[in-house]
Amino acid sequence: MQRCSHLYGSGVRCGEETLPGSDFCPDHVTVEDGHEPLSDHPFRKLLMRLAALILLIAFLIPFYYTIKALYLDTTIEAQEAR
Ligand SMILES: [Zn+2]
Fold first, then answer.
1. Model-level pTM?
2. What's the CA angle centered on 14, arms 11 and 15, to 5 degrees?
3. What is the CA radius of gyration of the chain?
4. What rounded mean pLDDT belongs to the chain?
5. Which residue in 23, 35, 47, 57 has a CA-CA distance of 20 to 30 Å to 17?
6. pLDDT, tens digit (0-9, with 9 covering 90-100), for 16-37
């Protein structure tokens, strides 16, 4: 019998006997073979792009105000003086 190919987080190999036609034991066959590849989800790419856009905007808004406060300080002072 072949030994299970599952690796634990510590790097230790499982070592249980495999299921016929699989590289994994009954405990790990669902963990390794059961989940779908991430790229197969049709909305994942769109969702990731949307999340990336939101993060980009979330980082750019404070950056914009910092730059504005640093380099366009004179206009702010002029407005506050009135
Ligand atoms: Zn295993």
1. 0.36
2. 130
3. 27
4. 81
5. 35
6. 999 888 888 888 887 555 555 5
